[in-house]
Design goal:
Blueprint (H helix, E strand, L loop, with lengths): L1 H36 L28 H18 L18 H26 L18
Length: 145
């Protein structure tokens, strides 16, 4: 646990150091830009022109996306609850949904048979040339059915 804490502290220090370097480079660029244009930071600024009263959005910056996303989660949650989709309803894998379907059971048994055959063939190729199960000494044998 001590090693993890030290790595987190090191990561925070590296991010802080990179942030300080970036801020210094940014300030140097701003100073160079001001020197090129000949304007000083204390010069009079142009008056701000106000627009109409409503500019769109919710007025919370990037957090304005939070409410529509939460609304979508609420809608999808209500639909799942209404139709019984989830861990306690009809759906789901292993909770009365796919696991009791005979087609799914046939597919799963076929998958298990195929994986067992592949496992056997891989062990035959690991035995190398001259193994008793593969007289040609080469690649995998043809599966028997």
């Amino acid at each position: 646990m001590g090693r993890f804490i030290l790595s987190v502290i090191a990561a925070v220090l590296v991010v802080g150091l990179l942030g300080a370097i970036g801020a210094g480079i940014y300030n140097a660029g701003v100073a160079a830009g001001l020197a090129q244009t000949g304007t000083a930071a204390g010069a009079a600024a142009a008056p701000y022109v106000y627009g109409w009263g409503f500019h769109g959005g919710f007025g919370f910056g990037f957090l304005g996306l939070l409410f529509p996303i939460l609304f979508l989660f609420l809608i999808f949650g209500l639909v799942r609850a209404a139709f019984g989709w989830g861990h306690h309803g009809r759906g789901g894998w292993g909770h009365g949904g796919w696991s009791n379907d005979p087609r799914a059971q046939a597919w799963q048994s076929e998958r298990e048979r195929h994986l067992a055959e592949l496992h056997r063939r891989l062990h035959e190729t690991d035995a190398g040339p001259g193994s008793s199960s593969n007289p040609t000494g080469g690649g995998p044998t043809e599966p028997t059915r």
